[in-house]
Amino acid sequence: MDVLLPSLLTDLTDPPEDARPMVRWWWFGGAVTESGIDDQLGSMARSGLGGVELAFVYPLEVGPQPGFGSPAFGRLIGYAARRARDLGLRFDLTLGSGWSFGGGHIPPAHAAQRLRWEERAVGPGAQQVSLPGRWPEDRLVAAYLADGVPEDNPHAYSPAAIDGDIVIVPAGTGPRSLLVATSGPTGQQVKRASGGAEGPVLDHYSRAATEHHLSALADPLLEAAGAEHVTAVFCDSLEVYQADWTPAIVEEFRARRGYDPLPLLFHLRGERSEGADFRADFHRTLSDLYEDHFLAPLHAWARGHGVLLRVQSYGAPPARVSSYRKVDLIEGEGWGWRGIPETKWAASAAHHLGVPVVSSETWTWVNSPSFRARPVDLKGEAHEHLLSGINQFIGHGWPYSPRDAVEPGWAFYAAGAISDRNAWWSAAPDLFVYLQRLCALLRRGEHVADVALWLPYQDTFAAFGVGRHLNLWRAATERIGAAVPAALREAGYDFDVIDEQTSADSILRRHRVIVVAGSATLPEADSQRLQELARRGIAVVVVDAEVLPEAIHVAMNDMNDTNDTNDTSGLIAAVGAVLAPDVVADDAEVAVLHRRHDDGELYLVVNTGPRRVVTAVTPRTAHACWQTWNAHDGSADAPRSGPIRAELGPYEAVVVVTSPHPCAAATPEPGPEAQAGSAPIPLPTWEFTGPDRAVRAVTLPHVWEEDGLDDAVGTGTYVTTVTLGEAVPTRLVLDASALLIPARTASRSQSYQALDPAPVGVVATVRVNGQVAGVLWDHPFEIGVGHLLRPGPNRIELDVSGTSVAGMRSPQWRAVYESAERAYGHRFTMQEIDRAFEPTRTGIFVVPALR
Question: Mind telling me which InterPro entries this protein's record contains (predicted)?
Answer without folding.
Answer: Class_I_gatase-like, Galactose-bd-like_sf, Ulvan_degrading_GH
